[in-house]
Write a structure and sequence with these properties.
heterodimer, A: Nuclear Transport Factor 2, Chain: A, six-stranded mixed beta sheet, B: Rieske Iron-sulfur Protein, seven-stranded antiparallel beta sheet, 27% strand
């Protein structure tokens, strides 16, 4: 696997991230779960502590795989009122860079703009960067960790992060 | 008044109705600023947020920019963040440690104690200009209870201890979780807006009537994790709880725990590995406080509203939540996690994880509260046609009021109404 990781190109990583973004924009959440490894994590740090560790700082989201599955189950439930009716989202992924390849794992960063639309609410624009750990598997790239860091000084008018950012 | 009273409160007729105008009319917010916020103790910060001389946090307190800080001698101070020359902010960083405060506009400089120590070109001022009279101004009143600092802009306000009334007992139950009596704000701030009237978050923060329907998915998550969420006969929720009036508009729901507590009630979500440490935390409480008090601290949850706009929710974790109206239909919420200062790394991590299962803008419950409050606010546009909300739950009973009744909500509103309708001094 590690040999394969060393030959992954930025274009392959971009294709993977674009495909992930399309699944999330389409609310194909079970398919999205299939992109994650069994030990995957999903984090959004608090806006005022973007570089912190969820064991020592309060986050907005700090999910392990059990919690990610529970989050998806919740979001598919009509009683997840904050996303019922669901938001429409449109993600722009850019500035994709492979920062490091070690032991078969790629450290990847990418900028994002996620626009979120909901009837009766203002358009909300979430801007920031992702930091991924991707691993190669026989089925292709998979996500071991996924951290979305928002640039806004506070969530403020972005309100809640009730969808998968 | 053509629009009728703010509330109809008739105990004999077991009737309590709230005029929806109180939540929707911008004129009411103007009155609240004048009659309530200017004459209340408003939460400003926790002593743990500023530890060393020169530590500071800049924040909005009661609509004013304030520097919450430690002076050179280590005392907590609340300076108004405005230059005595021509008003500019003298500190624009969110937080940090400084040797003093500097107004970059014309270069006036203040030390950590707020003294004006530098005025460029001072010789051009008239002879009566006295630098010692131009120190940073402080909020008129600043007092603390067990590390929680409050400010008031009413110089004649009653002392904080009296103001807090029965709420002190519940703050004590939170602070007693620390062996040294030192709780601390944990780094990382959740700051988010809700497009709703600020008082809707007062109600929501200790309204257990909404739990089963608004938070059905959170209860489902708890159930999936092995927590027993079946309500006992006669209750709407998995455990018994009561609502209490604590005086001066403060109120609480005081509930038997079912949802787990970092200090100290284990649930399956914490994992088998956590059992031993949670048992040890419980044992420390019993040794220090005795079995009865330990059971009170660790076996019950409380959602406390300190009038008018501070909430301390001590449940799956401890959250300190303050909020401020930006408009009649828009508030800014600031929420922190609180924990014992001496907590182990593993207990701290468990506390933070437990916090996120329910609370916060990415939690499994708070986003649905936000949605509920915004749905209320949207509905309130009909306040002229549908002027009254019904808030009489529990009025048919004498004695104990359940957490799913509305006594605690009425307690807030009665104090609010008293302040809004009091004769004001000219």
């Amino acid at each position: 696997m590690s040999a394969r990781a060393n030959t992954i190109t930025r274009a392959e990583v971009e294709d993977f991230l674009y495909a992930e973004a399309a699944l999330l924009d389409d609310w194909r959440l079970d398919d999205w779960l299939g992109l994650l490894t069994d030990d995957a994590t999903y984090q959004i740090p608090s806006n005022d502590r973007p570089d912190s560790d969820p064991r020592t700082a309060l986050f907005t989201i700090a999910d392990d795989m059990d919690r990610i599955r529970a989050r998806v189950k919740r979001l598919k439930d009509v009683n997840a009122h904050a996303e019922s009716p669901r938001s429409r989202t449109r993600r722009m992924i850019a500035n994709v860079r492979i920062l490091d390849v070690t032991d078969g794992a790629l450290t990847v960063t990418a900028n994002f703009v996620v626009n979120r639309f909901r009837r009766g609410s203002p358009t909300r624009e979430y801007v920031g960067h992702y930091r991924y750990t991707l691993v190669t598997t026989p089925d292709g790239l998979r996500i071991r960790s996924r951290r979305a860091v928002l640039d806004a000084a506070e969530l403020g008018e972005l309100g809640a992060v009730s969808f998968i950012l | 008044m053509t629009q009728g009273p703010y509330i109809i409160d008739d105990r004999a007729a077991q009737t309590f109705r709230l005029n929806r105008r109180t939540l929707a009319d911008p004129a009411v917010l103007d009155e609240e600023r004048r009659r309530i916020f200017e004459h209340a103790w408003i939460y400003a910060g926790h002593e743990s947020e500023v530890r060393a001389p020169g530590d500071f946090r800049t924040r909005d307190v009661c609509g004013r920019p304030v520097i919450f800080c430690r002076d050179g001698a280590g005392g907590v101070r609340l300076f108004l963040n405005t230059c005595r020359h021509r008003a500019a902010l003298v500190c624009r960083e969110r937080e940090g440690n400084c040797s003093g405060y500097y107004c970059f506009y014309h270069g006036w400089t203040y030390d950590r104690d707020g003294r004006l120590v530098g005025v460029p070109g001072e010789d051009s001022y008239p002879a009566h200009f006295d630098r010692s009279k131009f120190g940073l101004m402080e909020v008129p009143c600043a007092e603390n209870y067990r590390g929680f600092w409050f400010a008031s802009f009413d110089p004649d306000i009653q002392p904080l201890h009296g103001w807090l009334a029965g709420a002190k007992e519940y703050i004590d139950l939170v602070v007693d979780q620390s062996p040294s009596g030192r709780m601390e704000i944990i780094q990382g701030t959740q700051e988010y807006d809700i497009r709703a009237n600020w008082k809707l978050l007062v109600e929501n923060s200790f309204d257990d009537y909404h739990l089963a329907s608004t938070h059905a998915t959170w209860l489902g998550y708890m159930k999936d994790a092995g927590v027993n969420i079946r309500p006992p006969k006669g209750l709407l929720l998995p455990a018994h709880g009561v609502g209490r009036d604590l005086g001066n508009g403060h109120a609480v729901i005081d509930n038997t725990n079912f949802r787990g507590r970092p200090v100290a009630a284990w649930i399956s979500i914490y994992g088998e590995d956590a059992k031993r440490e949670i048992d040890a935390i419980r044992e420390e409480l019993i040794q220090r406080l005795g079995p009865e008090r330990a059971a009170r601290v660790a076996g019950t949850n409380r959602n406390l509203v300190i009038f008018p706009n501070l909430v301390i929710n001590d449940g799956s974790s401890v959250t300190v939540r303050a909020f401020w109206p930006l408009a009649v239909d828009h508030m800014r919420v600031t929420a922190f996690a609180l924990g014992p200062a001496e907590e182990s790394e593993s207990a701290r991590a468990r506390r933070l994880d437990s916090f996120l299962t329910f609370y916060g803008p990415g939690g499994f419950a708070t986003p649905d509260d936000v949605e509920a409050l915004e749905a209320v606010q949207a509905g309130l546009a009909t306040w002229r046609e549908v002027p009254w909300s019904e808030m009489s739950r529990g009025m048919n009973k004498t004695g104990e009021q359940l957490n799913t009744d509305e006594l605690h909500l009425r307690t807030f509103w009665r104090r609010w109404n008293a302040m809004m309708t009091a004769e004001l001094d000219a």
